[in-house]
Design goal:
Length: 270
């Protein structure tokens, strides 16, 4: 993996990806942030050596380098998921590449279902902790100790100072920003009523199919990390309607301006 990372990093440096400070992973329906980036360079995933390729139709497939809020940022426009047939090492490969390029902070967004009955679709949730239900770890491979501490500490995976700034920005802009626990499952099927009940019992406030692997690797690499979920549907097992993916995407797009405000103002403050 180290050789692969070096090849990828060399390619991106030669393309002009020059010492980014902040990495951003954009989730489902959350592409508008790019409009606030002064783009300097971009590379399609399928042109980057050793990079996976996004296969989900509503995920783009570009790595973008530019300036946002006076900071050099590198943005993943489209991410990878376990349910696409990738390994957890594939899913998190871009985080390792961004760290080698120079980032010190990783910001992640996603779309998720609200388990907490007090949370409503269209609102945002700041992730303050997570539950890994994906069945494995992105650190479970031979040679991981060459890339960082094998037994990565996860007592505080989401940076408290960044989360405090997120909450302050939300208050200033009158944005509803809940705090909660995110459960990450494999997917791609959505949950049954019994599974939603289980998730509530074990302490999850929202559920999705991403983010946790990237956060684990960010902590493995000693990056500051934070993540925000757009709550796209309400997962009430007693009143569960069939899933409507088009409605989920529309809800993510509706909430997107608030997400953009949070990320833009945060980056200005870092």
């Amino acid at each position: 993996m180290m050789q692969f990372i070096e090849e990828t990093v060399d390619y991106l440096i030669n393309k002009g990806f020059d010492k980014p400070e902040i990495g951003i992973i954009l989730g489902t329906g959350l592409g508008q942030l790019i409009e606030d980036v002064e783009i300097i360079r971009e590379a399609s995933y399928n042109h980057i050596p050793n990079f996976p390729t996004a296969t989900v139709e509503f995920h783009k497939g570009k790595l973008i380098y530019g300036i946002m809020g006076g900071k050099k940022v590198i943005v993943m426009q489209g991410r990878f998921h376990l349910y696409e047939g990738y390994s957890l090492q594939d899913v998190t490969y871009p985080v390792r590449v961004m760290e080698k390029l120079g980032i010190h902070t990783l910001l992640v967004s996603n779309a998720s279902g609200a388990i907490n009955p007090n949370f409503k679709k269209g609102e945002l949730m700041l992730i303050e902790d997570h539950i890994n239900l994906q069945g494995s770890s992105p650190l479970a491979f031979k040679g991981v100790e060459l890339l960082g501490e094998r037994f990565a500490d996860m007592s505080a995976p989401y940076n408290a100072a960044i989360n405090t700034k997120f909450k302050s920005i939300a208050a200033q802009h009158d944005i509803t920003l809940h705090e909660g626990v995110y459960a990450s499952v494999v997917g791609p099927q959505l949950e049954t009523r019994a599974e939603y009940r289980m998730l509530k019992i074990i302490g999850a406030d929202a559920v999705g199919m991403s983010t946790v692997p990237e956060i684990i690797v960010a902590n493995h690499l000693n990056l500051k990390a934070a993540a925000v979920s757009v709550l796209t549907d309400e997962c009430d097992p007693d009143n569960l309607a069939p899933v409507d993916i088009a409605e989920i995407i529309a809800m993510a797009e509706k909430a997107e301006p608030n997400m953009v405000t949070l990320f833009k103002e945060l980056i200005l403050s870092l």
